[in-house]
């Protein structure tokens, strides 16, 4: 059972389809660590053009999925009620494996240094393998600002 389903996620962050890139939240420590899941589908808009005949999820969308995961953690705390979190920066982004339709991503964000105007988070995207193990496919440091 997910801790938060899609409808509950929509109560916390403003993103909506087709630009909502997390399906459920497995665990959350408001202002701390968040783990979310994204099931990559073959009917997503980017599949037609990135790349025709060999759809690969764009790295920027993987980063966006990690950022949305972090936003759930930041915006779920009572102190952030009614606020929004915007990108302030992306540092040390690395892509280690491609993500394709049918993959399941486990998105983990550890929030650090949260202040009144924003904060940072260390984000990692793992591809969940058939045997239940996971392989890192992307990571970065995300800086956000409150709006």
Using the coordinates shown, work out and report the CATH topology. Thiol Ester Dehydrase, Chain A
Report the C-alpha radius of gyration, rounded.
Answer: 15 Å
The low-confidence parts are none
Tally of structural domains: 1
Overall outline: globular
| Strand arrangement in the largest pleated sheet | 1-2-4-5-6-3
Could you state the CATH homologous superfamily?
A: Hotdog Thioesterase
Q: How can the largest sheet be summarized? A: 6 strands, antiparallel
The count of strands amounts to 6
Oligomeric state of shown chains = single chain
- Which structural category fits the helices and strands? mainly beta
What share of the residues does DSSP label as strand, in percent? 35-45%
CATH class: Alpha Beta
CATH architecture: Roll
Number of helices: 2
Order of helices and strands: HEEHEEEE
> Averaged pLDDT, please?
95
Residues in helix, %: 10-25%
């Amino acid at each position: 059972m997910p801790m938060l389903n899609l409808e509950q996620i929509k109560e916390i962050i403003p993103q909506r389809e087709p630009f909502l890139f997390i399906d459920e939240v497995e665990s959350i420590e408001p202002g701390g660590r968040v783990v979310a899941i994204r099931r990559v589908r073959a009917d997503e808009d980017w599949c037609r053009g990135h790349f025709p005949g060999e759809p690969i999820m764009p790295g920027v969308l993987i980063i966006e999925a990690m950022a949305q995961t972090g936003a759930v953690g930041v915006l779920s705390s009572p102190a952030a009620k009614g606020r929004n979190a915007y990108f302030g920066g992306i540092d040390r982004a690395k892509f280690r494996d491609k993500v394709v339709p049918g993959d399941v991503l486990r998105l983990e964000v550890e929030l650090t240094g949260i202040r009144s105007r924003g904060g940072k988070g260390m984000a990692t995207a793992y591809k969940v393998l058939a045997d239940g193990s996971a392989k890192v496919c992307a990571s970065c440091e995300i800086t956000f600002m409150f709006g």
